[in-house]
């Protein structure tokens, strides 16, 4: 990395063990994608809840050439689970970013189109297709742009997946896509 890793602890004391864990995770990201310019990691206790104890939030701001990737993982009871999930999501975003940089945007046969019908600040929403079906998606399923930039009415493309809970949208994205001619 061109810039040193920055780690911030909020509402909690700094921890050498957590810092070491984050440094190891960042080193793995660098092995996966060597063009990372900088990374800021923020770990915080969201607040005390009577029944749940401490809940941890993790935010990663990763600077890459020409862009910044942001990952948020909120309200985990286990800080290490929040860190794992955040770094897993960062790896997926870096993988997608690298593919886009190399012009390797993939076409999926099962790709569907729809519009964001409802979106909730808790990190999930619903997409409605032209035939009236609704697909659930969450923050982790959004590839481009970041979840926080989606709006009701945004035209999106996604891959359908059937789960126990019903229809789900995976790899949700907006913008230009290349289709076989």
List the helices and strands and how they pair.
Blueprint: E1 6-10, H1 16-32, E2 38-49, E3 53-64, E4 67-76, H2 79-101, E5 111-120, E6 124-128, E7 134-138, E8 142-144, E9 155-163, E10 166-173
Attribute tags:
OB fold (Dihydrolipoamide Acetyltransferase, E2P); single chain; four-stranded mixed beta sheet; six-stranded mixed beta sheet; 44% strand; 181 residues; Double Stranded RNA Binding Domain; globular; alpha+beta; 2 domains
Oligomer: single chain
Number of helices: 2
Which residue ranges are poorly predicted, with pLDDT under 50 across at least 5 consecutive positions? Answer: 176-181
Percentage of residues in DSSP E strands: 35-45%
Helix/strand-derived category reads alpha+beta
Strand numbers in spatial order across the main sheet: 7-6-5-9-10-8
CATH class of the largest domain: Alpha Beta
Task: Identify the overall geometry.
Answer: globular
How would you name the CATH homologous superfamily of the largest domain? Answer: Ribosome hibernation promotion factor-like
- The appropriate CATH architecture of the largest domain is 2-Layer Sandwich
